[in-house]
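[Q] Does anyone have a clean structure-token version of this?
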Amino acid sequence: MTDDQSPSGKFRSLSGFASLADRTLLLLLTLSGAAWAGQLQPYLNLTFFKEQFLGLFFGLGVAGVFIRVKVHPRESGRRVPWYDWLGFAGSLLTGGYVMVMYPSIAYRLGILAPERWLLGGLAVLLILEATRRVAGSVLAGLGAVCILYTKFGYLLPGILYTQGFSWQRIATYLYLDSSGILGIPLTVAASVVVAFILFGQALYAVGGDKFITDVALIAMGRYRGGSAKVSVVSSALFGTVSGSAVANVAVDGAITIPLMKRTGYPSHLAAAIEAVASNGGQIAPPVMGAAAFLIAEFLNIPYGQVALGAAVPALLYYLALFTQVDLEAAKYKLGGLPVSQIPTWRGVMRFGWVFLIPLGFLIYALMIENWDAGQAGIMTVILTFIVGALQKETRPTFKGMVTCLEETGRTLLDIVVISALAGLVIGALQLSGLTFKLSLILVTLSGGNVYLLLGLTAIVCIFLGMSLPTAVVYITLAVLVGPALAQLGIDPLAAHLFLFYFGMLSLITPPNCLATYTAAAIAHSDFWKTGWTGMRLGIAAYIVPFAFALHPSLILKGTGGEIILAVLAASIGTFLLAVGCAGYLFRLLGWIKRGLFCVAGLLLMLPTWHGAWVLVDAAGLLLGVSLFLWERSKSSRAPSATVEPSGVTP
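[A] Here you go.
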């Protein structure tokens, strides 16, 4: 991974007018997004097209990238080059044209006026260059290839043939049509994602991060491997509100990773635990990552139904992580934290009780009242600042509130650009007609085999997720791949959760796993060693989506008996799989026994075909129980071997 993929490597250090312009853009981007997400316009008696706001949001976001992000990592980053000022002006021009002129454009979208396709071509070029800066050349190249296919698809044979379109038509369509740049990805970023990124930053501004960490210390600090378990709990809680696994690692990991290292965890293991725990916050109800709200919109179901369906898979994810963390602590003989380092419940709640109000309100608004996700998020932000102001210890300063808005805007820069690129990709494929053919292509490649189709989809999700936020990966694949999964009979909610899971797994899957990279940088650990360890700790997330896609009882669909049996079998299977991955139960396990534990776990986690899954579960349970009892018997007769923190068996 190159340096420019880390936040410190790609941003400029600005001063003077450039710094003022940068900070102004960040504030305007956040405030305009918050006003839109909070549905403020009716209260101000304002009426305008959604596309007008999206033009403003797009222009501010892309303009901010040209000021703030280096053109190349070797650039000094102390000043903005003249050509980036042109990119800045071009971004505001293309966004401003849509904002001002869209009311007249809307009724004559089919007209290929020169100013439309010229500005459209400029907007496409600006998006591709901005994407190259924030996400790398591969993703920008993918967008360019999709556009070239729309132009030259008539040269391809068979199912890939398309009639081809003029450059004027392509530029105008991608620029102004609601299926292009102004489409679903940018709409979601402006109406949902911004609200929850701002909520996470607001919580930090009033000291909510310390409250969450203290609660985790009270809950888990005293137990075996307490420092790591604190990391899991606090990171999971942070993850539900931060909207970014990378930001979550950066904030929470700065506290938990040094704590784990001080108590004996190896650096790579501490970093991996933090990365996996932070990433899992996106899939943990009741307040999941932004993509979960999109599932509700795509399927036209209440968010509470999505959260309920995701509950068991999330529990299995953290069960696998907790089990391995506990067994690693036993392996290294690591105890709990000293009592002096664990706060008292009374002391924490004395000032921290106020944070329960916005969290409770958010859960109530989403789960009970079924509020719009963006509006619920913005109202929770306002409530967070209000309750924070009630006490001197949590009262936000003016500087802190401005920093909160700026940090939100800084996070949004990447999201705006990548959302715009996702709109380009979706728009180009829809214009060419490939969107309608893709389901047929995938089903044909898989030979109609649902297992092969799921495998292909998982690989595509992880590949796209290497450069895209989870929400954008989900949106893209929900449009392109979701119909193919439904065509082979997979439950719609299971199919969309499958896409959600594998979209977020790229953040802990080498080589381009930003959450792991950030954690490794904090821990000063070897990146590759940290990455492979993170995959092992998060093993359940690679398997559970296949389980609930093939067996919807795991998302609570079916009879009561089916659900209970499926959840029980999967829970036992997850525990056995975690034992095999950790390589320790009551003593160190050899590779053969580790493999047998993994096989037993998989048999229980993956109920399969033709009603034979009961027999498969029975075989897995018999094997797992036999191994467990054997190891328990053997360990009681001989002292267990342990591992020193250096990783050397004594």
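[Q] Thanks! Anything notable?
[A] Residues 1-8, 646-650 have pLDDT under 50 and may be disordered.
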